[in-house]
Amino acid sequence: MSGSEQKPITYKKVYYEKNVELGLEDPECWECTSHRCRAHNGTIPCNRDGFRFLHRWVFWKEYDEIPEVVEHLCENGCCLNPAHLLGMTVEEAKLLRPPARWGAPPKPYGTMYRLAVSEEQLAECRKMLAQGYDAGTIGRKLAISYRIVRGIARGTLYRHG
Question: Quick count: other Cβ atoms within 10 Å of Cβ 42?
Answer without folding.
Answer: 14
